[in-house]
Amino acid sequence: MVPPADFRSYYGRPILKRPVWTHEIAAYLFTGGLAAGSSLLAAGGDLTGRPGLRRAGRATAMAALLVDFLRHEVAAGRMPPGSCPSRAASATSPTR
Protein backbone atom coordinates (compact mmCIF):
# COMPACT_ATOMS: atom_id res chain seq x y z
CA MET A 1 0.00 0.00 0.00
CA VAL A 2 1.06 3.54 -0.69
CA PRO A 3 1.14 5.79 2.39
CA PRO A 4 -1.04 8.93 2.34
CA ALA A 5 0.62 11.92 0.71
CA ASP A 6 2.04 14.65 2.92
CA PHE A 7 1.70 18.01 1.20
CA ARG A 8 4.50 20.22 2.47
CA SER A 9 6.69 22.67 0.66
CA TYR A 10 10.45 22.69 0.90
CA TYR A 11 10.65 25.67 3.26
CA GLY A 12 7.60 24.89 5.38
CA ARG A 13 5.50 27.54 3.66
CA PRO A 14 2.04 26.90 2.17
CA ILE A 15 2.12 25.49 -1.35
CA LEU A 16 -0.50 27.97 -2.60
CA LYS A 17 -1.06 31.53 -1.45
CA ARG A 18 -4.44 32.41 0.01
CA PRO A 19 -6.72 34.02 -2.61
CA VAL A 20 -7.15 37.77 -2.38
CA TRP A 21 -10.37 37.85 -4.41
CA THR A 22 -13.69 37.77 -2.66
CA HIS A 23 -17.16 36.89 -3.94
CA GLU A 24 -17.70 40.48 -5.10
CA ILE A 25 -15.12 40.03 -7.85
CA ALA A 26 -16.81 36.85 -9.07
CA ALA A 27 -20.21 38.59 -9.09
CA TYR A 28 -18.74 41.53 -11.01
CA LEU A 29 -17.20 39.26 -13.65
CA PHE A 30 -20.40 37.20 -13.96
CA THR A 31 -22.73 40.17 -14.40
CA GLY A 32 -20.31 41.81 -16.85
CA GLY A 33 -20.16 38.64 -18.92
CA LEU A 34 -23.93 38.27 -18.79
CA ALA A 35 -24.40 41.85 -19.99
CA ALA A 36 -21.85 41.42 -22.80
CA GLY A 37 -23.33 38.14 -24.00
CA SER A 38 -26.87 39.46 -23.86
CA SER A 39 -25.97 42.58 -25.81
CA LEU A 40 -24.30 40.44 -28.49
CA LEU A 41 -27.46 38.34 -28.73
CA ALA A 42 -29.52 41.53 -28.98
CA ALA A 43 -27.29 42.78 -31.80
CA GLY A 44 -27.65 39.45 -33.57
CA GLY A 45 -31.41 39.60 -33.18
CA ASP A 46 -31.40 43.13 -34.58
CA LEU A 47 -29.33 42.12 -37.60
CA THR A 48 -31.42 39.05 -38.39
CA GLY A 49 -34.80 40.72 -37.88
CA ARG A 50 -35.85 38.93 -34.69
CA PRO A 51 -37.46 41.58 -32.48
CA GLY A 52 -38.18 39.16 -29.63
CA LEU A 53 -34.52 38.16 -29.33
CA ARG A 54 -33.44 41.79 -29.59
CA ARG A 55 -35.86 42.88 -26.86
CA ALA A 56 -34.93 40.03 -24.52
CA GLY A 57 -31.20 40.59 -25.07
CA ARG A 58 -31.44 44.30 -24.40
CA ALA A 59 -33.57 43.80 -21.29
CA THR A 60 -31.21 41.17 -19.88
CA ALA A 61 -28.15 43.30 -20.61
CA MET A 62 -29.70 46.34 -18.93
CA ALA A 63 -30.79 44.29 -15.92
CA ALA A 64 -27.28 42.85 -15.52
CA LEU A 65 -25.72 46.30 -15.75
CA LEU A 66 -28.20 47.70 -13.24
CA VAL A 67 -27.52 44.86 -10.78
CA ASP A 68 -23.78 45.38 -11.17
CA PHE A 69 -24.08 49.15 -10.69
CA LEU A 70 -26.27 48.84 -7.61
CA ARG A 71 -24.00 46.17 -6.11
CA HIS A 72 -21.03 48.47 -6.59
CA GLU A 73 -22.78 51.49 -5.10
CA VAL A 74 -23.94 49.57 -2.02
CA ALA A 75 -20.47 48.04 -1.54
CA ALA A 76 -18.86 51.49 -1.80
CA GLY A 77 -21.23 52.87 0.84
CA ARG A 78 -22.66 55.57 -1.39
CA MET A 79 -26.17 54.20 -1.24
CA PRO A 80 -27.82 52.53 1.74
CA PRO A 81 -29.23 49.06 1.09
CA GLY A 82 -32.93 49.00 0.37
CA SER A 83 -33.16 52.50 -1.06
CA CYS A 84 -34.69 52.90 -4.48
CA PRO A 85 -32.73 55.06 -6.95
CA SER A 86 -35.86 55.85 -8.97
CA ARG A 87 -37.49 57.47 -5.93
CA ALA A 88 -35.27 60.56 -6.30
CA ALA A 89 -36.48 61.04 -9.88
CA SER A 90 -40.18 60.44 -9.34
CA ALA A 91 -42.71 63.29 -9.38
CA THR A 92 -43.89 62.56 -5.82
CA SER A 93 -40.42 62.35 -4.33
CA PRO A 94 -40.04 64.05 -0.93
CA THR A 95 -36.64 65.39 -2.06
CA ARG A 96 -38.11 67.53 -4.85
Describe the structure.
The chain has 96 residues and is mainly α. It has a domain at 23-77. Helices cover 53% and strands 0% of the residues. The chain is built from two helices and no strands. The protein has helices at 23-47, 51-76. Helix 1 (23-47) runs antiparallel to helix 2 (51-76). The chain is elongated. The termini are far apart. The mean pLDDT is 81.
Summarize the helices and strands and which ones pair or pack:
Layout: H1 23-47, H2 51-76
Descriptive key words:
96 residues; mainly alpha; 2 helices
In a nutshell, what does this entry contain?
The chain is mostly helical and 96 residues long.
From the spread of the alpha carbons, the general shape counts as elongated
Element string (H = helix, E = strand): HH
Work out the strand percent: under 5%
- Find the count of extended strands (DSSP E, 2+ residues): 0
Stretches where pLDDT is under 50 for at least 5 consecutive residues are none
Helix count, DSSP H or I runs of 4 or more residues: 2
